[in-house]
């Protein structure tokens, strides 16, 4: 790859200049009041991005995986039952993490390309009359398949079943790029990281706990220290941190949330939708299909594109980087070799997206696929030329 | 414009990450030996890029305009005659500068789109039997028109006329990007800047003097102090500078010349030709014409593209920046409103070039031009897909 | 504090320019081969700094606390006994972490200012004939008290007792700054972070496992996923990572280890000793005492200085930052208000150290202490003026 | 030298982090409206720093020497008489520049250590009843000797003589650090650069023209193009530049002037005075003398310190950089080997100044001088400890 070209992996994203500069700080004494002046606006900014009035936000040096561990280890105890659906690599990994922590995971097997089946969640929760299930896991945006699921529907399913379990949501590749309504959707824990919608380098696990989730913390007996939100909360209350914080990244988070809120969250989401829609039109112009089972599942942060039979998607990704210096995402797990992914999250522009689409066309042609050069570009251009005021609203499927 | 997108102005160019970091230095004592360890490799690097064994290189805090002034004020005296051709805005400005310094400029009016007419140079020089003409000015690459001229032909013209004038060449937008042979072509003074082929911020005037030019310095009576190469030469000999140097830019120049020489100058030139050729194929696919009168004049660093009658090129440039955040070059002087320019110099990639071409298509469509979206992109893609080993050689015109 | 002044906290350290630039990278695809070209040299570099031929090094997005958790959760099971001594805040916190993970910690209470009592370790281990103790914890350098302990002595104690427990060592504030001999000392797990001897921002937990520690991993049943070295090892073997790595910090680690090894570890350690010795001479010139019980315990990375009765060390630290913009370390835990700390690790110079000493003098005078201005500075200057070739050898205590 | 240590050369100064980041910009199209949004606030900021309501400010890619050339070439004609005093290397160089441009310079020889002799100016101007003298040159702060002169007195001398010459002032090492009142003092042209009080890298020549100076421009016949303010003025009026501007430096200038004005100019000057006074107290504690003839001439930006007979000041400077990695200024011209200079301008702190003073003491001791280590430090500490509200007013001499 070339640092001259944009990256099209679904995170870490291309980083805006000002965020790189915010992260690249000289050493600041994290026990001085200057630190609190970075930390608290960053936490407040995340809360606003989550559209929550009541959540408590915690930020750890870590990644989204650490965020998953934070979510379960602070609220659950060994042997607790949790309910989760598997519809791709990242939902799979969270399930795996739960199992390795001694939880009893009831797994709904959804297809890799399917959304989270709210009806199945409801059925199982309704049947759990003893409320053995303590937490429901939901992956808002399955990064491996480019599928966004309806979290509000999961909440409705839980409510319909009258089930008191906590709702834990992986929003790693959605938060900050697609609409996420922590309070409205009754999300109890939201998990994300620094390197997706917040456009920063990897290195922060970001989690938000609802008041109900906070209540569950004291009773939870899974072992935790590094990811213990109680130490974090005590530290924050004193303007500090339980260990050495990643000050530069927190400073970046303060600025990143400020940028998103200044632009207006709805504008940010509309922008992502616009860019994504252009990519999708290119895909369809090529005669290819998205991995997502139906248009209502199309993610605005990442598109997973199925390769035709006989074409190895891994070769696509390898050729793109070697020949044109451009990084796309590979297929993961069940989809390895079958899809390649175009990440279109963060502060991407139409113009950057077009360069990725144009590159993909050259790669496909090089691999012998029957692709008209310029065809996907033209379809995307036609979309990007439209008045942003009209194209940034989510179309009916 | 958006800092997320590449720029397509014909300099300053997009800057490679490592050069930005080389320029962004902490304060270094320019009277310490550390400075000489930056200065001398930078000077040697420039000399190698110029393919000269004998030139003395001088670098001033300034720009190419300062380089022009350095060239004339160090070698000429008030009232001296010089010969120059005007074929665009930058050759025009050098002529103007000479006149304002009291020189008697004999101007050959070539068209804006024409190359330098070696035959006319020869005629005039042959007629100047008294050798009143002290210097011949030649603009290697006319940035305003995208025309590269044959400097070797100018030298042959001078030799054919048996004329002893100095040959002063503006290589601002060619040196480091297109072949420049100071010794082979008998160039007496070469002028360039930091912000083109050297991929740095603006701020350095770079000039190289042949031994013959050095001999002319003592007799020259035009006033000069800031741009006096004698002070510079004395400073360099002592590892220093006659005033405060722009240390960071010099450090960048040291690294930039290293990058060019490590890549291999022929590879650098071939890369520029490849990228440029893709742009030109796009232009032709759009049914448009380059400003350059004939293919042998096509510049590999900048393409000036004629707009059809009735379309204002300034609107093109303004719309590109406002609607898509992409900077192209405007037409200058006689060409204002008639051409827009795509700069494709510096470390541009195929992929970046494609994003500029795609943007240009959207802009032209927005302005109501009859352009098939994707058509130029497809033509460029077809070129960029070809084996670099075969496409990087300059085709016969 | 002012970013113009050096910091004197015992980590994060002042960062060398080149390391900041190494960390501040554009987005790199961590699934591309470029990542392995960063990761593996970084891991190898750490191994060399640890003076180990056989260790496996793992680097997590995290901090030293995460490193502690990695050490125990990968090798121990709930209910396992571990032996540890408490001689300051950081040894205390590791003990606390073990307890919260369900381990049965046998604590040797050493004074805050004492070294690790090898004789007490030996006694207890010799008495543990049933080998219930699975791990011995040792804090090489207690950052809270400025005490360096003799890890080789702990190993000798274990060997004398014929005890098979693993030796887990916290080298967070020693590794890369003071001699650390993983293989010679029979260390089974070494723990450190990015923000001390490696001079980087906080954000990496760095751990090294001996072959014996690796063998213990499979039998360990403490829950772990984020910090599971098995996933890490599998990732590394494939040139990758089990989740999104902190690429910039890893790139910094690659460069930092290169810098240390290029300078020569013995030179690095001697440099730290020189700087530290100057600070200690200043302390003694002031008539103050170090927290460390005896000279053989003096740390070369941090000095904890006891305030006279009646002077609040917290006021010292607060006044230094408010009035002079300089950050020193506060006393922690039992030492809060009783000591202030001067961190002198990382790439500090004599000159920087002198500015910290001079600041401390002004602060003490401002607080009404009977201090001769310039007295500590003069003592340190006298030391720093000595021939580095003679002063950088560790003096007999 | 070491980039870890501050520099103590009298410019370029240590650069504040935020200014380095402001300068290190991605490529911006200097023909787009974004450029005007940088340029005009920068020009306005300079004007405010100069305390002028009426001046026109011009900024060239260049240095202070280019500023001198701008001043004379835009207002004078060959053969014009100018009056100047020589009291150090920089006043000498400006005189030399005038002579090389064909001006008839009447030189008042003041001692190297003296201030500008207003009485001699008055005498000569009064005698010039024919007003042959077109310009009076005055060096506000002679960087070579650490002497600040009274520009208001020069203006009074001109007025007393009823002389209409222009007053051209070199404020390179004063403006932005010491009080400068362009309008009050009737300064016609003020010259400075980016690398002193503006704390930026070298690379900008900054000049301000009074309305009277502007009137002189049209009649001036000295050759100029690069430094012609008429082209500059035309460019500015159109939001542009006559050639490629140094955009990053201009962006830095915008921020630097903002920082100075936000702090309050009087606070900035008081801060420089405080720091300088501490350095001077150290010098006197060492038993050494400043080069300046009397206390009223002491510069708050640079102190030139006379070495005792028999000690080579060049050895001092060389030893400081080689042994301690610290850069001081050498003696220049007549003072070579006789003085060393401590620059204390820009955003230096007490703490940084103390490290320079401490270093100087070690160097002097190393050279065999009879210096009590810590003595100068103690004297400076005593000053820096005083309440800033009382010490920042300029004491009576």
From TrEMBL, chains A, B, C, D:
Question: Origin organism of this chain?
Answer: Roseovarius litoreus
Record keywords: Aminotransferase, Pyridoxal phosphate, Transferase
**Pfam families cross-referenced by the UniProt entry:** Aminotran_5
Q: Which family does it belong to?
A: Belongs to the class-V pyridoxal-phosphate-dependent aminotransferase family.
Its organism's taxonomic lineage begins at:
Bacteria, Pseudomonadati, Pseudomonadota, Alphaproteobacteria, Rhodobacterales
Q: What is this protein called?
A: Serine-glyoxylate aminotransferase apoenzyme
Q: Which domain of life is it from?
A: Bacteria
UniProt GO BP: glycine biosynthetic process, by transamination of glyoxylate
- InterPro entries cross-referenced by the UniProt entry: Aminotrans_V_dom, Aminotrans_V_PyrdxlP_BS, AspGlyoxATase, PyrdxlP-dep_Trfase, PyrdxlP-dep_Trfase_major, PyrdxlP-dep_Trfase_small, SP_NH2Trfase/AEP_transaminase
User: What cofactor(s) does the depicted protein rely on?
Assistant: pyridoxal 5'-phosphate
Which residues participate in substrate binding? 341
Which one of the record's GO molecular function terms can you name? L-serine-pyruvate transaminase activity
* Residues annotated with N6-(pyridoxal phosphate)lysine modification: 196
Domain Aminotransferase class V residues, every copy: 31-331
């Amino acid at each position: 790859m070339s640092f001259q070209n944009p990256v099209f992996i679904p995170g870490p994203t291309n980083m805006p200049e000002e965020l790189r500069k915010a992260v690249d700080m000289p050493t600041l004494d994290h026990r001085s009041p200057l630190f609190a002046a970075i930390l608290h606006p960053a936490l407040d900014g995340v809360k606003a991005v989550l559209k929550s009035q009541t959540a408590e936000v915690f930020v750890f040096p870590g990644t989204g995986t650490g965020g998953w561990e934070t979510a379960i280890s602070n609220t659950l105890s060994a042997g607790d039952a949790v309910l989760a659906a598997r519809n791709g690599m990242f939902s799979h990994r969270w399930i795996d993490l739960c199992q390795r922590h001694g939880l009893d995971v009831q797994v709904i097997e959804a297809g890799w390309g399917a959304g989270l089946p709210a009806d199945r969640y409801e059925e199982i929760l309704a049947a759990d009359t003893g409320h053995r299930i303590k937490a429901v896991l939901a992956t808002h945006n399955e990064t491996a398949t480019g599928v966004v699921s309806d979290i509000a529907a999961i909440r409705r399913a839980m409510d319909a079943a009258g089930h008191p379990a906590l709702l834990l949501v992986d929003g790693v590749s959605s938060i900050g790029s697609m609409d996420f309504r922590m309070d409205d959707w009754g999300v109890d824990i939201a998990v994300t990281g620094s390197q997706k919608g917040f456009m920063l380098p990897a290195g922060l696990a970001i989690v938000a706990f609802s008041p109900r989730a906070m209540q569950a913390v004291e009773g939870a007996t899974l072992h935790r220290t590094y990811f213990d939100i109680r130490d974090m909360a005590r530290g924050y209350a004193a303007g500090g941190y339980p260990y050495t914080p990643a000050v530069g990244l927190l400073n970046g988070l303060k600025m990143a949330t400020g940028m998103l809120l200044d632009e207006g969250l709805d504008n940010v989401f509309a922008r992502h939708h616009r860019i994504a829609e252009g990519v999708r039109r290119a895909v369809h112009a090529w005669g290819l299909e998205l991995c997502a089972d139906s248009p209502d599942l199309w993610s605005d942060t990442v598109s997973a594109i199925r390769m035709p039979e006989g074409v190895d998607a891994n070769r696509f990704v390898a050729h793109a980087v070697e020949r044109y210096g451009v990084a796309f995402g590979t297929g993961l797990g069940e989809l390895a070799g079958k899809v390649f992914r175009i990440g279109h999250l963060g502060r991407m522009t139409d113009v950057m997206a077009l360069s990725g689409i144009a590159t993909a066309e050259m790669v496909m042609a090089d691999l012998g696929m029957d692709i008209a050069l310029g065809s996907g570009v033209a379809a995307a251009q036609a979309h990007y030329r439209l008045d942003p005021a009209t194209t940034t609203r989510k179309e009916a499927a």
